[in-house]
Every structure is written in structure tokens, then in C-alpha cells.
């Protein structure tokens, strides 16, 4: 068809464009497309498809500035009310820069996914960088793809960065050549999981994140301020420098000393502008119950002798060193290990001996201890654990603090025909995933050390055995959080092994009776600890009491004292949380 | 707004029909379809395969899918009744498949067996996330598991990737148009040729952005003969019968302006429409921006007192970066793009 175009007509009726209060831009590539097709005579589109395309646009149109759109794009995911609230707040009150600091197990990943999805749906975000610990990379990719229909890609090779939505480990990203590449790009959104690792502003991680160019930013952490206000300030500065004023203002307005805030109400007000923290006790989140079974054990005479020997040795050393706690840490470890397994004590002891000068008087005493290790033939705890596992006949995770104990248990269980796998922090990503899969499938038992605690989700298992206990309640909580989290269908049964007449018994008493932590679905543990630890960490206080007590009596009264103040604090906190 | 399964079904069926796909089995809950080459190219993400077909000239083997629109109902229906029978020797198992791809046959067989055991409808693959690749990449797109002879089930609901993809494909193939109003059969036998008026029609998408966003669609048309502008041009077109071929016995009125001039006028018209909107949102966004910037300024003011030149420079850099980021985040703006556009020759009234 010939075009009869007369370009002569003056543009009558076209008034000069009225001024908008906002910059306006027209994309005009379509005009070139149309003109060139007119020149060439096609090819032309199909009207039915055109109508389809318009209907598609219409249905996805963001018709309102302030209404969550993402839910209609998500099927098969029903977020909990507090998660939706969080997404809403991040978008409409915090403009997309926030610290998500829910307690463990409340679904921070879901919240971040919702926020990301919302921005994607709105077309405000296309280029996204997600930095997480290496062990969580695949889990993030999987969740974003399956739960949110977001095509995220795990960073494997340098060309992976070319994708729009990349999940990478912080350790990879901050190194060259990746670092340079990332610093020269712009990200519509940056998400960082386990962000409490960014508390030190001198660290390379911190400076790297500070230099990244980002529009929206989410920092995820379950433990935002354990007990240092300076660290909190750094974290917020990363997100929104100046939100708490400059360093001087902050110090003057909010800090008494490192651990003690002032003007708490005001501080909390400021914090709530950048940080969202949901707690277990709030909202209609239904968690299953926690059932606690404390299993008292009596040590065999040989084990008891070893325990007493180590205890006496540790105490004497402490007296000799003149009460210097920091040099005593390896000995404290020894004391704790003796409650776990002889293997653990053995390794630490041998290492200590190696470090001693050849003529040290301690040497002989330690060799004696080694001899008494040799006399221990049985492990009462391992036997009991075995019995428990046989009785429950279901999947179970066993936690221990020590690699040596882990190795021992692995061997012991295998000898007795149990299918079991190990899981520890030192494993590489692939192996960890492999172990998780084995546990999900064939294996009945997983033996995990503390380092393996973070970020593994084991909702399919509802038994856990604390073979030994960390002295830091937050770490105990993290252990429980692996199985007792959203998605757990059954009541979680927690078995605590405690040997009578040892320090372990006291610790368990403290954690269980005084903080009531095993059954505490309500949360608030961090508040209790923060308040308790204003002066000194709980772990350290426990060490001191243990080392300084000259008799069982003294030990008990010291621990009781701590117990009293803890239970007082927990009553207080509970009242605040649930008036 | 969201779409019900029935509405989604309509969208998908329209697409399949428009792209000449062959429907194997249809119910209100699902459709089993063998894609046409055209749809296969757009939907299956197999550029290498299609490159191979183009270079060697072999007959393309397109993929088949079962799209399920209401998974819940479909599953419960499938659980009650025996699996729907397919035409024997039909597209499910092409005659040549047994010879050329024994491997896929076996895989398909195994798949069906396991699916039958778990009571799921046939064609459902076992969890693809169990593979070794999934362990390495976190997620594996399910596509590599399909080949000729296998029909993959996919749930197509509002928000699913497939539906988004179908819309994108429809836009890609349907964005640029030249159409004529069908004059009806009587026009051919009439003595006088009918006068047709050329219209430029554009469906504009207006994106109002700050740290938040709102969108509007404006389908407007301008007569290139008279300069008259019609709002809601889309519904006018929807009421008409349109054909891509130039009908007989009609003539097109002379253009008073070319397409580019028409586009100019549409743009200034749209601009004046937009000018009448409420811009409180932009004011508020600017207010937020001002506040944020003042916070940033206060923070860096003290840091910039740093005496060490080198350190000061680094801080200054950081300061500027943060200011830029903030503006990027909040600065209000409006961007207008065209979803579809074309030339429409409509009977003069």
C-alpha cells in the first residue's frame, strides 16, 4: 500500500505541552518499529495476541501506590499475618531499607521474599544481589524459585553475575575479581542474610557492603544487638547513615557505656524506623509445643574418677594463675569436655601437653589424667542415647559441641547398626547439602556440632538430643530453632542428658528451671540475656563461679544467685511481652 | 486484579488458538496440547534446538504439555476416575519415538509407574529437585527432562511463570499492527467504494515511580486524516471486526499527517491528561527525599571535618554515593512506554 502522506499541514491545535511537576519521559522505539514495518510492508502482529497482551498488562497493573500486590502473584504460599505486616511496613513505611530481625524460626526469608517479590511485581527492581553464608546459598535459590517463582541463580562461575537475580556467598563476593565487578554495578536491591556478621566497620565485609551501590536494602539477622550498642550503630549506618545521628550524637544521646543504653524509649523509637523484630509470643503464630525430657545419668566409677581428676586439676591451675580468666579458657574447655566424652578430653589434653615445656611440673599431672582416661571403657551417655534412639524409632538430631565426640558417636552408632550422618561447620557446601539429603532420606540420625547450627532447617524431624549443652543460652535456642520452627507439624521433643554430680547438672538446672528456656515458646530470651549481660556475659560469669568455688556448697550458692536474677528478669520480660 | 482459573484458561486457550497449536484433550480444568513450531519457539526456551532445525532443515518435533488451570479440582478428579485415556498411538507416543529415543521411552515409562504408585495423574514427574543437578544449582529448570514422547504437566495459574511467559510472547508477536475494518460481504457488491480513515492507535503504559509505584494504561487513537483524538480507542476497536487484509472496494482517505506527527500529538494529548492528575504522591516522595538527605548531610558533616586529606576524600566519595543512592530511591518520575501500537484503517463515519 502506498502511503499518501502530506507533511505540510501545520500542527494546529497542538498546544504547548503543559508542565508536569514531575519529569516525564516517552519511550519512542515503537515509532521506529512501526515506521520500518510500514516501509517493508510487515510482518504484522496478530490482533488476538495484541488483545491478549493488553489483558495481561491490565491484570498485572499496579493500580495503587500503597497496597501489597505480590500476594495475587503467589500461589501455594500462605504467609503468616506478621510476615505480611512486615512486608507492608518495609514497603510503605521504610521505603525499602530495613533490618529484618525476627527471632529464630519466624520466617525472615519469607519476609524478604515477599518484599523482593513485591518490588519485582511493581517493576521497581530488576537487578538483585543476595549475599548469604555459603551454606545457605542453595537453600535461598530453592526457596525463591519454588515458593516465590523468582528466577534466582546461585553464583558458580564469574558469568553467573550476568543474571538478574544472583545468590552468592559473602566470602566469594568480597574477593577479587568478583569484588571489582560488583562494585562497578548497580543493584536495585541488596539482601544480606546473617547480617550480624557486619557489625565491625573495619572489616572487609563491612566496607565492601558499604561501597556497593544499592537502591533498596534488606539486612536479615536473628541477633541484631547481642550486647553492644556500637555494633548496632554500625549496622544501621550501613543501611541508613545518620538515622541515629552521627557517632557523637549517638554516643551523647543513647549510650551510658558500651552495653548500657540510655533514653531507651527514644532509642527504641528510632530503631523501629529501620528495624522490624517479631517475637514468638506476639501474634497468632501457632507453634507446636516443646516437650522436655531431662535424662539424669549416673557416671560409672571410672568416669566419675576422671571427672573429679579433671575438675581438681582445672581448679588448682586457676588458683595458681591468680584468678586470670582469659588464660584459663582452654582449661575451662577441658572441664566442659569431660562431661561430653573421653575422646574430647583426650584430644584437648594431648594438645595442652604438647605445648608445655618438657620440664613443666604440670606435665606429670596431665599424664596421670591421660592414664585415667585409659581406664574409662564405657560411655554412659552414648549408651543411653543409643537406647533413646532405639525406643523412639524416628528421625532424631543429636547435638554436641565437640568434633571428637561427634566422631566417636558416629562410630559408636554405626557399630550398633544405626544409619547416621554427621554435619559440621567445616564441611563444604556440597557435602553439607549431601548430608542433609541423606538425613532427609535414609539416615535415622544426624550428629551435628554447633557450627552446623546456623541455617539448617529440619522441620521433618521432631526429636532432638542435647548430648552436651552449650553454656550460652542463645546457642541452645538456635539448636532448638533448627527443628522447632514454622512448618513443624509435630510437638518437638527435646532430650537433655545430664550426668549427676557434675557441672552439667547445674547448667541444665539453670537453663531449664530458671530461664525455662526449653519450653519457652514465648521468646524474649534475648531481652533477658541483654539485661543480664549488661556487665558480663553469662558464659563468663558461669566460668568464674565454676573456677572459684572451693566447695560444692559454694558452687551451688553462686549458681543459685545467677539463677535468681535470671528468673526475676524472665518474669519481668514475660510481663512486658504478655501484659 | 487477579484472574480466576476460568479467566486464565481463556487467556491460555486464546493464545494456543492464535498460534495454531493442536489441542489433544480439553476440559474446563486442563488442556493437553502439542505446541505449534511458532509457540514452541516462544515458550520452551530451546534456542539451540531451533537453531539446529533451521540449519539442517529437519522437521521440528515440538513439545507437548498438559496445562492445568485448577490443580486442586484436577487432582481430585484424577484421583477418582482412571486416568483419561489418550488416543492410542497418538501424539503422546509418536510412532518414531520407540525407534529414535528408547531412553526417553523408558524414562517416561518409569515416570508413569512411579506416578501411578503415588496416585498422582500420569505425566507428573517425580520431584525434579531431587536430582544431583539440583543439589549443585539449588534449582533445576524442569525443561531438560522433557523430550518427544513425554507430556509434562504444568499448573498454570495466575502469577505462574508460564502465564507471564505467554503474555510476554503475545506482546512480542502482537505489539505492532496494521488492520482494516471488515466492511462485510455486501461492500464487495456495492457500487461505491467505502471511504476508510487511517488511525494511529497506541496503548500507552504510564509508570509513576518514586520509592513506590503506580501504573495506568491509556489506549488512545488519532485519526491521521483529521487529527481527531479518541480516548479509549481499544473499546472502539473491540467492537469491530478487523482483518489484516486490505478489503475490496474501499479507499483510504489521504493522510493529513504522517505517523511521527501523529505520535507527537498523541504524546502531547497524553501529557495534558497526565497534568490533570493529583501529584500529592510526588510531593510526599520529595518530602521523604528531603528528610533522608538531611539525615545523610548531618551524618557526614562531622565526618568531613577529618583533617587527613586522603581519608577525607574517601569519606567525601562515600557521602556523594549515599546522596546519589537516596535520590535514586526517592526521586519521582513518570515513564511512558507503548505496549502495543499500530495503524488501523476504519470506515469513516
UniProtKB/TrEMBL annotation, chain A:
<dbReference type="GO" id="GO:0016787">
    <property type="term" value="F:hydrolase activity"/>
</dbReference>
<protein>
    <submittedName>
        <fullName>RNA polymerase-associated protein RapA</fullName>
        <ecNumber>3.6.4.-</ecNumber>
    </submittedName>
</protein>
<feature type="region of interest" description="Disordered">
    <location>
        <begin position="1"/>
        <end position="20"/>
    </location>
</feature>
<dbReference type="InterPro" id="IPR014001">
    <property type="entry name" value="Helicase_ATP-bd"/>
</dbReference>
<feature type="compositionally biased region" description="Polar residues">
    <location>
        <begin position="1"/>
        <end position="14"/>
    </location>
</feature>
<dbReference type="InterPro" id="IPR049730">
    <property type="entry name" value="SNF2/RAD54-like_C"/>
</dbReference>
<dbReference type="Pfam" id="PF00176">
    <property type="entry name" value="SNF2-rel_dom"/>
</dbReference>
<keyword id="KW-0347">Helicase</keyword>
<feature type="domain" description="Helicase C-terminal">
    <location>
        <begin position="381"/>
        <end position="533"/>
    </location>
</feature>
<keyword id="KW-0067">ATP-binding</keyword>
<dbReference type="Pfam" id="PF00271">
    <property type="entry name" value="Helicase_C"/>
</dbReference>
<dbReference type="InterPro" id="IPR027417">
    <property type="entry name" value="P-loop_NTPase"/>
</dbReference>
<dbReference type="InterPro" id="IPR001650">
    <property type="entry name" value="Helicase_C-like"/>
</dbReference>
<dbReference type="InterPro" id="IPR057342">
    <property type="entry name" value="DEXDc_RapA"/>
</dbReference>
<keyword id="KW-0547">Nucleotide-binding</keyword>
<feature type="domain" description="Helicase ATP-binding">
    <location>
        <begin position="89"/>
        <end position="242"/>
    </location>
</feature>
<dbReference type="InterPro" id="IPR038718">
    <property type="entry name" value="SNF2-like_sf"/>
</dbReference>
<keyword id="KW-0378">Hydrolase</keyword>
<dbReference type="InterPro" id="IPR000330">
    <property type="entry name" value="SNF2_N"/>
</dbReference>
From TrEMBL, chain B:
<feature type="region of interest" description="Disordered">
    <location>
        <begin position="75"/>
        <end position="125"/>
    </location>
</feature>
<dbReference type="Pfam" id="PF11079">
    <property type="entry name" value="YqhG"/>
</dbReference>
<feature type="compositionally biased region" description="Low complexity">
    <location>
        <begin position="109"/>
        <end position="120"/>
    </location>
</feature>
<protein>
    <submittedName>
        <fullName>Uncharacterized protein</fullName>
    </submittedName>
</protein>
<dbReference type="InterPro" id="IPR024562">
    <property type="entry name" value="YqhG"/>
</dbReference>
Amino acid at each position: 500500500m502506498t502511503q499518501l502522506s502530506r507533511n505540510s499541514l501545520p500542527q494546529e491545535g497542538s498546544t504547548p505541552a503543559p508542565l508536569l511537576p514531575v519529569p516525564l519521559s516517552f519511550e519512542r522505539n515503537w515509532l521506529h518499529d512501526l515506521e520500518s514495518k510500514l516501509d517493508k510492508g510487515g510482518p504484522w502482529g496478530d490482533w488476538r495476541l495484541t488483545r491478549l497482551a493488553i489483558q495481561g498488562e491490565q491484570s498485572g497493573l499496579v493500580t495503587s501506590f500503597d497496597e501489597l500486590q505480590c500476594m495475587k502473584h503467589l500461589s501455594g504460599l500462605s504467609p503468616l499475618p506478621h510476615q505480611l505486616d512486615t512486608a507492608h511496613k518495609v514497603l510503605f513505611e521504610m521505603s525499602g531499607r530495613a533490618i529484618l530481625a525476627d527471632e529464630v524460626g519466624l520466617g525472615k526469608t519469607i519476609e524478604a521474599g515477599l518484599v523482593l517479590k513485591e518490588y519485582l511485581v511493581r517493576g521497581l527492581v530488576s537487578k538483585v544481589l543476595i549475599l548469604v553464608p555459603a551454606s545457605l546459598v542453595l537453600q535461598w535459590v530453592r526457596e525463591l524459585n519454588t515458593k516465590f517463582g523468582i528466577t534466582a541463580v546461585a553464583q558458580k562461575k564469574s558469568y553467573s553475575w550476568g543474571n538478574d537475580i544472583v545468590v552468592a556467598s559473602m566470602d566469594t563476593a568480597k574477593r577479587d575479581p568478583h569484588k571489582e565487578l560488583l562494585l562497578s554495578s548497580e543493584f536495585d536491591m541488596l539482601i544480606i542474610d546473617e547480617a550480624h556478621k557486619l557489625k565491625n566497620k573495619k572489616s572487609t565485609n563491612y566496607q565492601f557492603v558499604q561501597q556497593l551501590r544499592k537502591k533498596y536494602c534488606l539486612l536479615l539477622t536473628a541477633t541484631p544487638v547481642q550486647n553492644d550498642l556500637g555494633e548496632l550503630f554500625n549496622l544501621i549506618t550501613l543501611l541508613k547513615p545518620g538515622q541515629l545521628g552521627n557517632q557523637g550524637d549517638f554516643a551523647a544521646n543513647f549510650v551510658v557505656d558500651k552495653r548500657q543504653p540510655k533514653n531507651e524509649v527514644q532509642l527504641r523509637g528510632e530503631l523501629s524506623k529501620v528495624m522490624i523484630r517479631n517475637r514468638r509470643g506476639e501474634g497468632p503464630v501457632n507453634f507446636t509445643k516443646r516437650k522436655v525430657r531431662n535424662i539424669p545419668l549416673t557416671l560409672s566409677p571410672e568416669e566419675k574418677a576422671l571427672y573429679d581428676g579433671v575438675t581438681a586439676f582445672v581448679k588448682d591451675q586457676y588458683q595458681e594463675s591468680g584468678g586470670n580468666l582469659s588464660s584459663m579458657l582452654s582449661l575451662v574447655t577441658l572441664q566442659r569436655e569431660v562431661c561430653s566424652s573421653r575422646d574430647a578430653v583426650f584430644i584437648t589434653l594431648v594438645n595442652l601437653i604438647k605445648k608445655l615445656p618438657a620440664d613443666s611440673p604440670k606435665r606429670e599431672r596431665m599424664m596421670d589424667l591421660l592414664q585415667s582416661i585409659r581406664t574409662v571403657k564405657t560411655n554412659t551417655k552414648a549408651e543411653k542415647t543409643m537406647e533413646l534412639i532405639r525406643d523412639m524409632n524416628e528421625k532424631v538430631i543429636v547435638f554436641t559441641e565437640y568434633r571428637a565426640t561427634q566422631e566417636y558417636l558416629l562410630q559408636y552408632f554405626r557399630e550398633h547398626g544405626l544409619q547416621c550422618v554427621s554435619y559440621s561447620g567445616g564441611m563444604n557446601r556440597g557435602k553439607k547439602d549431601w548430608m542433609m539429603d541423606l538425613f532427609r532420606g535414609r539416615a535415622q540420625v544426624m550428629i551435628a556440632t554447633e557450627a552446623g547450627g546456623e541455617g539448617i532447617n529440619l522441620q521433618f524431624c521432631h526429636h532432638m538430643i542435647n548430648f552436651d549443652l552449650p553454656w550460652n543460652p542463645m546457642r541452645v535456642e538456635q539448636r532448638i530453632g533448627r527443628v522447632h520452627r514454622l512448618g513443624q507439624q509435630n510437638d518437638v521433643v527435646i532430650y537433655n542428658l545430664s550426668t549427676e554430680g557434675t557441672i552439667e547438672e547445674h547448667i541444665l538446672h539453670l537453663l531449664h528451671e530458671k530461664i525455662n528456656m526449653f519450653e519457652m515458646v514465648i521468646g524474649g530470651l534475648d531481652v533477658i540475656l541483654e539485661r543480664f549481660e549488661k556487665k558480663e556475659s553469662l558464659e563468663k560469669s558461669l566460668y568464674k563461679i565454676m573456677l572459684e568455688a572451693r566447695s560444692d556448697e559454694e558452687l551451688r550458692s553462686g549458681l543459685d544467685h545467677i539463677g535468681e536474677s535470671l528468673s526475676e528478669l524472665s518474669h519481668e520480660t514475660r510481663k512486658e511481652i504478655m501484659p | 486484579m487477579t484472574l480466576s482459573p476460568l479467566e486464565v484458561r481463556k487467556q491460555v486457550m486464546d493464545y494456543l488458538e492464535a498460534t495454531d497449536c493442536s489441542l489433544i484433550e480439553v476440559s474446563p480444568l486442563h488442556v493437553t496440547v502439542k505446541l505449534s513450531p511458532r509457540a514452541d519457539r516462544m515458550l520452551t526456551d530451546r534456542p539451540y534446538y531451533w537453531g539446529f532445525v533451521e540449519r539442517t532443515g529437519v522437521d521440528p518435533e515440538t513439545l507437548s504439555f498438559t496445562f492445568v488451570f485448577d490443580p486442586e479440582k484436577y487432582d481430585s478428579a484424577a484421583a477418582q476416575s482412571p486416568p483419561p485415556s489418550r488416543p492410542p498411538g497418538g501424539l503422546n507416543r509418536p510412532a518414531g519415538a520407540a525407534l529414535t529415543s528408547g531412553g526417553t521411552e523408558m524414562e517416561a515409562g518409569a515416570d508413569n509407574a512411579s506416578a501411578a504408585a503415588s496416585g498422582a495423574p500420569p505425566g507428573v514427574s517425580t520431584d525434579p529437585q531431587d536430582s544431583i543437578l539440583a543439589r549443585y544449582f539449588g534449582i533445576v529448570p524442569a525443561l531438560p527432562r522433557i523430550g518427544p514422547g513425554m507430556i509434562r504437566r504444568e499448573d498454570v495459574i495466575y502469577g505462574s511463570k508460564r502465564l507471564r511467559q505467554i503474555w510476554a510472547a503475545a506482546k512480542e508477536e502482537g505489539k505492532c499492527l496494521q488492520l482494516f475494518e471488515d466492511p462485510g460481504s455486501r461492500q464487495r457488491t456495492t457500487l461505491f467504494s467505502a471511504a476508510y480513515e487511517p488511525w494511529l492507535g497506541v496503548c500507552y503504559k504510564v509508570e509513576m515511580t518514586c520509592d513506590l509505584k503506580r501504573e495506568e494504561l491509556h489506549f488512545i487513537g488519532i485519526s491521521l486524516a483529521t487529527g481527531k483524538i479518541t480516548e479509549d480507542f481499544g473499546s472502539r476497536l473491540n467492537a469491530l471486526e478487523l482483518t489484516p487484509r486490505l478489503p475490496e472496494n474501499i479507499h483510504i482517505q489521504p493522510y493529513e499527517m504522517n505517523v511521527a506527527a501523529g505520535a507527537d500529538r498523541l504524546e502531547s494529548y497524553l501529557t495534558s491528561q497526565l497534568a490533570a492528575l493529583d501529584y500529592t504522591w510526588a510531593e510526599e516522595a520529595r518530602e521523604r527525599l528531603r528528610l533522608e538527605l538531611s539525615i545523610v548531610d548531618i551524618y557526614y558533616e562531622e565526618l568531613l571535618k577529618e583533617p587527613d586529606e586522603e581519608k577525607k576524600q574517601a569519606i567525601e566519595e562515600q557521602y556523594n554515593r549515599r546522596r546519589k543512592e537516596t535520590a535514586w530511591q526517592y526521586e519521582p518520575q513518570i515513564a511512558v512506554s507503548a505496549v502495543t501500537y499500530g495503524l488501523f484503517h476504519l470506515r469513516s463515519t
